[in-house]
From TrEMBL:
Ranges where the RNA polymerase sigma-70 region domain occurs: 24-87
Pfam families, alphabetized: Sigma70_r2 (PF04542), Sigma70_r4_2 (PF08281)
Keyword Phosphoprotein applies: no
Family statement drawn from the similarity comment of this UniProt entry: Belongs to the sigma-70 factor family. ECF subfamily.
Keyword Transcription regulation: yes
UniProt name for this protein: Sigma-70 family RNA polymerase sigma factor
Keyword field: DNA-binding, Sigma factor, Transcription, Transcription regulation
RNA polymerase sigma factor 70 region 4 type domain sequence ranges: 116-158
Length: 183
């Protein structure tokens, strides 16, 4: 789990902590950029550039929130620059109906929620995590049981426990989910 201690270690040049930060934030950042650009390679490039810039300024940060704010600001500016400079600007802008104040915030919040859900699922015990992951792929209890070589009752129990654990760990997200459903 990422916290301020990672940022302090990174400010001292700790590449392992930097790798953990990159791994912990990459998926949600990719979601954010890709939803805006619909271009996998460009999305990856923008995220990479943001992390390189952060590394060069790592001594200026002492907490995770400041780093996330910095990275998302850099990413947002790079997205805007890309859209401004690309010959396909009009097509891209029309396809995503760019409304920075609403769409950008919505995607940013969604990316953050997805990242936290992904982290919470990753922290479940291995067998429970596998049941939840397969359930999220719309697999039936019977198919999951067959895939994992366990009984359907075991799958049902693991699924119930897994979702209860996730509800408890992610209860702080309820207000954000309400915001997303209203918007």
């Amino acid at each position: 789990m990422l916290d301020d201690s990672h940022i302090k270690r990174i400010s001292k040049g700790d590449r392992v902590a930097f790798g953990e930060l990159h791994e912990g934030l990459y998926q949600r950042m990719f979601y954010y950029v890709y939803k805006m650009l619909h271009d996998k390679e460009q999305s990856e490039d923008i995220i990479q550039e943001a992390f390189v810039l952060y590394w060069s300024k790592r001594n200026n940060f002492d907490n995770l929130l400041a780093v996330k704010t910095y990275l998302y600001t850099v990413i947002k500016n790079k997205i805007l620059a890309f859209l401004r400079d690309t010959t396909n600007r009009k097509r891209i802008l029309e396809s995503i109906e760019w409304e920075e104040s609403v769409t950008g915030d919505y995607v940013l919040i969604t990316a953050e929620i997805c990242g936290q859900v992904q982290q919470a699922v990753h922290e479940l015990p291995a067998q429970t995590r596998r049941v939840i992951e397969l359930s999220m792929q719309d697999m039936t209890v019977e198919k999951i049981a067959e895939e994992m070589c366990v009984s359907p009752n075991t799958v049902k129990t693991l699924k119930k426990v897994g979702y209860q654990t996730l509800r408890e760990r992610l209860k702080h997200l309820r207000a954000l989910l309400l915001f997303l459903s209203v918007g």
